[in-house]
Amino acid sequence: MTFLGWLEPAAIEREIASAWVVAAPSLWPEPLGLVALEAMVRGVPVIASSVGGFAEIIEDGVSGVLVKNGDVAALAEGLIGILDGSRFAGGLPPDVIRRVSDRHDLPRHIARMRSTFTEVAAA
User: Fold this and answer.
1) The domain spanning residue 40 has which CATH number?
2) What is the pLDDT of residue 30?
């Protein structure tokens, strides 16, 4: 395992494109978990702590694996399952990638926010 620190966007793209899994065992609740979205829209499954934003954007068993915060054994089990091909063989299925991409598409997000603000302002 290598911790690369901050990377330019092109370098992030290269790293994720060659990944077989992205592990994000955060110790605190991430507000969103951009690293998880970056991986999932590229077909890379994510193993992450089931807290904060990760618990909201990762579908356990569908787009990745959620583990109890601090559960090292569950994290290892998830990694082994992906490594040996018993989980997510070949990466995430195209329909899952499409669903994640559609849900987190920036123009759609902005449209949903505008709609919400319009409804609130009208009330």
Assistant:
1) 3.40.50.2000
2) 83
